[in-house]
Amino acid sequence: LEINKTNTTDVVNATGAWTVTNSLLLTRGTWNASTFTHSIAGAWNSSAAAFTFNAGTSTITLSSLNPNITTKGLGTQPFYLLSLNNGGVLLSSVQVDQNLSIAGVLNTNDAANLTVAGSILGTGTLQGLAGGLQELISVGANFTVATYTANATKLLLSGATQPVSVGSYSFYDLEVNKTNTTDVVNATGAW
After folding, report:
1. Is 56 exposed, middle or buried (0-12, 13-18, 19+ CB in 10 A)?
2. Bridge partners, 155 (sequence order)
3. How far is 21 from 143, CA to CA, in rounded Å?
4. 44 exposed, middle or buried (CB, 10 Å; 0-12, 13-18, 19+)?
5. Contact, 100 vs 82, CB < 8 A?
6. Is 16 exposed, middle or buried (0-12, 13-18, 19+ CB in 10 A)?
7. Chunked in runs of 10, what are the mean pLDDT values of the chain (191 residues)?
8. Residues in contact with 181: Cβ distance below 8 Å, sequence separation at least 6, in sequence order
9. Cβ atoms of residues 176 and 154 within 8 Å
């Protein structure tokens, strides 16, 4: 599915949940995803300068095996809730305003940063790229994926959510920089 309206000011409003059986390419116009859960069985690309993605309080579920995920980057048109049913590959930096749920393997990419204001959780693996520029994964709440393979990735525990649970992982570069000195981070296993 491609949204490619005549004008950048043209708007497509979701009035129900969408199921896209292949990739979603957002080229020109605006998509208001509203409050619904939208299932995409392919790649996600919202990087076009002439397109605006308004997540609202929607959930975007990517269900295909390791879909490519491309956005405009951090600070611009973030996901609200993002669910990866079979992993994924970041082709750009990605921001999620609430939670990121991972099943399968999510691979960061050379200098593709990941910022999640809520929790990163699920039964899957978050895997940093080995070699290249260091990626930054920033999480504001719980960090409890089944497996974390840091490689050369930095993990930043930030935000004011507390207490925060962090699973038993090996870290390459870990920074705890919570909002308040009274914010608590609980290790749920050995680090």
Report:
1. middle
2. 137, 174
3. 30
4. buried
5. yes
6. exposed
7. 94 97 94 98 96 97 96 95 97 97 92 92 92 87 94 89 86 91 86 83
8. none
9. no
User: Please, where are the H alpha helices in 76-157?
Assistant: none
- Rounded CA-CA distance 1/121 in Å is 29
Q: Which pTM value belongs to this model? A: 0.94
8 Å CB contact between 154 and 172 = yes
DSSP-derived 3-state class of residue 136: strand
Both structure tokens of 117: 């204001």
User: Both tokens of residue 43?
Assistant: 């790649």
pLDDT, position 84: 98
Residue with tokens 């991972």: 102
Hey, what are 133's tokens?
Answer: 């520029």
Q: Which two tokens stand for residue 161?
A: 């959510």
